[in-house]
Amino acid sequence: MQLRPSVAHHAFDRAAFDALRARVGTGALDPAANRLPQAPTPLTRPPIDLRDGAAAAARTELGLAALRAGKVAVLVLNGGMATRFGGGAKGVVPVVEGNPRTSFLAIKLAEVRERAKDCGGSIPVVLMHSFATEAASVAHVEALDWAGVAAPSRLWFSQSIMPRVLPDGTPLASLPEAQAFDDQTLYAAPGHGDTLGRLVGSGVLAQLRERGVEHILVSNVDNVGASLDPLVLGAHLQAVREGAAVSVEVVRRIAGDAGGCVAELPGGRPAIIEGFRLPQGTDLADYPHFNTNTLWLVAAAMDRSFDLSWFAVRKQIAWPGGGQREVVQFEQLIGQVTEFVPTAFLDVDRDTRFLPIKTREDLAAARPRLESFARAVGLAP
Questions:
Q1: Helix (H, G, I), strand (E, B) or coil at 273
Q2: Strand, coil or helix: what is 380?
Q3: I need a surface site. Which of 10, 52, 103, 311 has the fewest CB within 10 A?
Q4: What is the pLDDT of residue 1?
């Protein structure tokens, strides 16, 4: 099938899509098929505790040295479907009401600008958009002049795209009424798992490596706490010396935390396991650490393809003409890269490193803390 001209410039793996929709039609990708056959083993080696101050000075100096040498870049995940914040791209939403220069994107960019200024080095920042967030986000950051990030350090690319299907595998785009549907009904961004493939396929990883970047901090646009802290970077660099290709920031689980865990798969490899992959009845109390979706990547180790699983995610969407209807969209998970490469886990301070904002209600509740981040980087009085 052909993509609409309005989205045809986005990467689309037609062969993968045809195979996936055929499997949906047979029931091979029903939700039960996503689950592991048995609960994973809790970590036998606990995460590295960064709240222990004994090694803080050495880690901080190690991180600062890498920043000064221009060996680090930042990748902000600004993709998705732009549905949780009233149909607009979350990254452009201001955290200080009435001040558009305090958006999530602006804060993330200003954090990089300030760190580069402090270190006297060059820090590239990469924005990953989706077909649903690209236009608004590109216009927004251009209007902000990238919050002062140096022009040679500004890079971006967009996710690939996947058509949505009915539960029997029929593409929505093939329905008789499809001409009346908007792009965000017909298509979906395929989760943050295609970040790694698009980082390579877009040529951005090659550009980063050519300028000497060896490590990449990846974080969600809504988590402004996930900044370039030299202490955390230093802990990642120490883990790399011991063989890690990825370091994952985790926090101690508290009441109300949903989602998955970090645990060991058969064979003993520690990995991120999303909640929908856990067998029913799994007691999350057995897994005391929670994945923040903030990862530090060794750039050279990412310059390859990873055979990440495709998951069929069922969604109820507003149907043009009224009502709701169940559709299926295909997604991959960036955290699954931990199943393929040696991974370290960093136990970070939850209050300073993990501030996810998923809904307008989350934003209202966290506004005072978010405003403090905006003030810290000079975006608010």
A1: strand
A2: coil
A3: 52
A4: 78
Rounded alpha-carbon distances, angstroms, from residue 17 to 223, 311, 320: 31, 12, 24
pLDDT of residue 20: 96
Residue 16 DSSP one-character state = H
* 292: number of Cβ within 10 Å: 22
Instruction: Answer for the pair 239, 261: CB distance below 8 angstroms, yes or no.
Output: no
**Buried/exposed 195-225: b ≥16 CB within 10 Å, e otherwise:** bbbbbbebebbeebeeeebbbbbbbbbbbbb
Tokens of 188: 């979906």
| pTM of the predicted model as reported, rounded to 2 decimal places | 0.96
Q: Are 24 and 311 in contact (CB under 8 A)?
A: no
Domain ranges of the chain: 14-376
In the three-class reduction of DSSP (H, G, I as helix; E, B as strand; rest coil), residue 237 is classed as helix
Report pLDDT for 185: 93
The region that residue 378 occupies, defined by phi over 0 for left and psi between -120 and 50 for alpha, beta otherwise, is left
SS3 assignment for 148-210: HCCHHHEEEEECCCEECECCCCCEHHHCCCHHHCCHHHHEECCCHHHHHHHHHHCCHHHHHHH
Those residues of the chain that have pLDDT short of 70 are: 84-87
Nearest CA among 206, 268, 222, 179 for reference residue 84: 222
Task: Tell me the CA distances in angstroms from 318 to 167, 171, 216, 231, 326, one per residue in order.
Answer: 16, 16, 37, 45, 9
Q: Which amino acid is at 135?
A: A
* DSSP type of residue 90: G
Contact 185, 44 (CB under 8 A): no
